[in-house]
Amino acid sequence: MLFICCCYIIYLDGKLNVEFSSPEFSQLEALYPEVNNGGSFYPQDCIPPDDVAVIIPYRDRDLHLRTFLLNIHSFLMRQKLHYQIFVVEQVANQTFNRGKLMNVGYVEAQRLFNWSCLVFHDVDLLPENDLNPYWCVDTPRHLSAAVDKFQYKLPYQTIFGGVSALTASQFEVINGFSNNFWGWGGEDDDMVLLGRFSVHRHPGKYARYKMIKHQQESMNNANACRFNLLKFTNMLWRRSGLSNLNYRLLNISVNRLYTKMTVDLYEEQSRREIRRFCAG
Question: Could you give the CA distance from residue 257 to residue 211 in angstroms, rounded to a whole number?
Fold first, then answer.
């Protein structure tokens, strides 16, 4: 008879040595024979505490993805989670839209399994301590509270970006992320400004991350409209998110260590809907 993995802490190391190398995918696959096709894992010796979809908004960061997979699979397996890694890639000729990609990841992941917990994870953030649990609680959790780029301090109190965890029901209640934020910044602040939930954070000694250094992407410049849009959060949130999500799924590829979705986010059509909020 199997029991719930309640004593998971005996499997954990606490502070980790983060690896910054980027092995070839064949090498990574050899490292993790326990991981099933599509990047899923289910512990065999106990009942996992949560069913977790790890959703990564992504575009053209192959080296970062390999580094991320090297670190994250061992991290999650030690926490005895049932999980799967979903990489949601936007086509190349559009302005990056992190919030909309995460909404797509949620919808498409739920078609494959009824995931109870969602972890939205930037590909360039690597956890430093496996005592930072990647499962959901009764309030949304901001997991990446202490990042080396910010001297392990919160850059501002309402930050929710980087790595965050919500239950499926919490995500539905707030209508997911806004689809309106094209370019860098705004989608996480928009969610917090709704004020529908308080946000939980683990102490900084556990919620520590290293950021992979990289240059700014050419199609991910700061969103000049983000501050205007944030003024209208309480007016727009029901209309922008899961409720009006439009996209075209171009491809799903099931790789050994992750499932990748390639999507067209219909930028031109979507931008027309917010033009009046971005004028001036």
Answer: 21
Interior/surface letters 203-229, b for 16+ CB within 10 angstroms, e for the rest: eeebbbbbebeeeeeebbeebebbebb
The superfamily in CATH containing domain 27-213+220-277 is Spore Coat Polysaccharide Biosynthesis Protein SpsA; Chain A (3.90.550.10)
3 state DSSP class of 83: strand
Locate 125 and state its tokens.
């953030």
Q: Which residues contact 216 (CB under 8 A, 6 or more apart)?
A: 184
Between CA 141 and CA 185 the distance in angstroms is: 19
- For residues 134 and 6, the model is more confident at 134
Residue 183: per-residue pLDDT: 76
Neighbouring residues of 66: CB distance < 8 A, sequence distance ≥ 6 = 22, 23, 24, 25, 28
Task: Output the average pLDDT for the chain.
Answer: 87
Q: Tokens 């409209």 map to which residue?
A: 225
Residue 52 corresponds to which tokens in the numbers above? 């977790």
In 3D, which of 269, 227, 221 has the Cα closest to residue 244?
269
Host H or E run for residue 204: none
Residue 267 in contact with residue 48, Cβ under 8 Å?
no
Q: Within 32-120, where are the H helices?
A: 62-78, 98-112
